Amino acid sequence: MEKEAQHSLSLCENKPTEKNGVPPWCVTPLHGELYGGIYRKDIENRFFDCSDMTFDEQLAECVEVAITNLALKRTRRYKEAQLDDRELKSAALAKLAAGMQTLSLEPDFVLRSKQTVQAVVHSVVVAAVEIMTSRCGAPTNESH
What we know:
The protein is mainly α.
């Protein structure tokens, strides 16, 4: 359980690199491009709006906000890869499954919100890159 908790928290770290302002897990230009298309404040606002829901429901709502951000702010990439919202949501929630319990147990609501936002962004970006790469080949350096 302790190893799982450490892994979950490491996914939630959001320390920007000095070079490009994105977290270290953004290992390709595509990761960085998608990361930049998700507004963390939108996710945080949804998390607070859904505070009366179960944590699983809150998480699903937050994932939906992140996916909506990508669909609206990275429309060309989204269409090129023929991303399906349901498929991306399912893949992102699957990535979050291991750390979901750890996140839900955080007693400080504000800290839980910040960690959840970071984990959601990470899972949605990584899931989107995996789906895009499987459909369209290796990510390119082009920005769209």
